[in-house]
Amino acid sequence: MKPGAFTQLYTHLIFAVKYRERLLTKNIRDEVFRYISGIIINRRHKSIIINGMPDHIHILVGLNPDDKISDLVGSIKKNSSVYINEKKLFHGTFHWQDGYGAFSYGKSQLNNVYSYILNQEIHHK
Question: Which letter does DSSP use for residue 53 in this model?
């Protein structure tokens, strides 16, 4: 970010496992989400919360304006897929589905978005 620049850019990212397969089981989710958080931080964004269900993921991120959203999502998908496959976190090959959703929010909306992401299992019952 440029000296003297101040931004508050909050984005909710959503994307799915290829074919909406239910591969992100509870026993691997925390490890995968921690890894994804590291990717986000290494790209100089703020990782606020990551959660999801077996077939999709939700990420709330404070964006670094020097990085394009499409590049961030591409990096998350590529690097997390490699990680999951190299660590053999399940039998078979893991891939993310093409595409993603990205929704922007103001600071006053963050608590509601955070709660929504935190409570994915309740929301999807």
Answer: E
